Amino acid sequence: MQDLVPFEIIEGDYDGGMVLLADHAMNRLPQGYGSLGLPDSAFSRHIAYDIGIEGLTRRLAARLNVPAVLGCFSRLLIDPNRGEDDPTLIMKISDGAIIPGNYPISEEEWDRRLEIYHRPYHRAVERTLAKAGASGRAPLVLSLHSFTPTWKGVPRPWHAAVLWDTDYRAVHPLLSMLREDQSLVIGDNEPYDGALRGDTMYRHCMTSGTPHALLEVRQDLIGDEAGINEWADRLAPVFARLNEDPLLHHYEVFASRTGPYPT
């Protein structure tokens, strides 16, 4: 019997028009992998998961009564937010940490991780989005991630950021609503660019024309229960307002900045 289920589906109102995703919610590894040769301390770092995102996603799903899909394995095992042909799908080194259990890696082991962890997670996302869109009304997909407060010693000024490719439909109003609080610094495709071929938003939303946005929150702001509750209080009404917009429940395919879609 498999000792680590690769995903968790939080049930909610599938007719409510919204689905939350949390690719990097957890830092777990299957028993047979030990710690991939890393010290235990590595699994409290951002290289293993998105700090604070599991708790934030659970709070938001409960408050909004919407379904959510959580990834239950560490990104150190295999990254669910990468395409199957992405060379960073299984990292050999991450933010200075060499990952002995990932190098060298055989083609057989690479395929095994895809088949047992990566693909089941994405099939769960597909099923959830299909169920939420069964009426023909597109669900609004909001993907939650977190980023480090500093990178290579340089502080990151953003409290949160919205990442996107070219589908602006949910992005522009989300940025506008978040910026209503003038105490917040909200990034637009910072500190990362949201156009990544094969990632979760590309695979499940860009190619199908499903309205979506990816929200990153700085990890020090959601690193404890108080911070998670504060951001859930902030985001829940924003997400609810977004979901009320009928323009965010139609399928429309936008060209990707990464190039033509696969045929």
From TrEMBL:
Q: What InterPro entries does the entry give? A: N-FG_amidohydro (IPR007709), UCP029730 (IPR011227)
What Pfam families does the annotation carry? FGase
Query: Superkingdom of this entry's organism?
Result: Bacteria
Q: Under which name does UniProt file this protein?
A: N-formylglutamate amidohydrolase
Species for this entry = Pseudorhizobium tarimense
